[in-house]
Write a structure and sequence with these properties.
11 strands, 6-stranded antiparallel β-barrel, 249 residues
């Protein structure tokens, strides 16, 4: 989940706690982050330099000029579409504001209750659309669950950060070689099945930093039955709906 293609992200929120939290997550995932504490400040920043922004993460509820006001200013001053805008909120229900946000040019909407894995999932989905558009059947959804796995005679532990129809991203500090074959067992929320699978390590982030939150290994399943595949696909579809990851536009 650590990207080698760092992007410039501007976080606009009046809460220093949320700005710091979001910055820590985004920087650890490989991106560069700048801040603005309200709508007036980001508008002034955009007047000075708007070309270096790859993504604007915008709170809806702020003093003086709120997120809606910023979106209106972007639209009225020729900035709409220059960079994607991901709206975040802890107050408004998506169903009540979706049409307004769509008309104002927002790219997506998420709640502040998202986990780090869910935030990175949304951000990278917007920043790297080709990776999800061209490989839509293998879209990954964030999960947070411990897992035991066996390589040879050795049993190790790790944490699954996301899952797709073909594999998982495994966070572990264990020293694992690319190409290693493993055996793992796990369950998924809402699915009455114990997945008992063989898998292979396809890639790792060891050359970046395995000790960070998003360091680990890309694991590909090699022994899914059709029934297991159907259950896994059902879980992914349900998670996409639950998370509301559909873009606004």
């Amino acid at each position: 989940m650590i990207t080698r293609d760092a992007k410039n992200i501007f976080v606009v929120d009046d809460s220093i706690f949320f700005r710091t939290k979001l910055s820590d997550i985004l920087v650890e995932a490989g991106h560069k982050v700048r801040f603005a504490k309200d709508g007036r400040e980001i508008i002034n920043e955009l007047k000075i330099d708007s070309d270096s922004i790859d993504l604007l993460i915008l709170d809806l509820q702020m003093p003086e000029i709120d997120g809606f006001g910023v979106l209106r200013w972007l639209k009225e001053n020729g900035y709409a579409g220059k960079f994607p805008v991901l709206v975040v909120t802890s107050v408004y229900e998506p169903g009540h504001v979706m049409e307004t946000l769509k008309n104002l040019g927002a790219t997506g909407l998420m709640t502040k209750g998202f986990t780090p894995e869910q935030i990175i999932f949304r951000v990278n989905r917007i920043l790297f659309p080709g990776k999800t558009t061209n490989r839509a059947p293998k879209v990954r959804v964030p999960v947070s669950m411990p897992v035991d796995f066996t390589i040879g005679e050795k049993t190790l532990t790790g944490f699954v950060l996301n899952i797709s129809e073909t594999g998982i991203f495994l966070h572990t500090r264990a020293d694992i070689l690319t190409g290693a074959v493993m055996h793992m067992k796990f369950t998924l929320p809402g699915i009455e099945r114990l997945f008992d699978l063989k898998a292979v390590v396809k890639w790792s982030t060891a050359d970046i930093d395995r000790n960070t939150l998003f360091g680990g290994f890309g694991i590909m399943f090699t022994s899914l039955t059709q029934e297991e595949q159907d259950d896994l696909n059902r879980f992914i579809d349900n998670e996409l709906k639950r998370l509301g990851v559909e873009d606004v536009v």
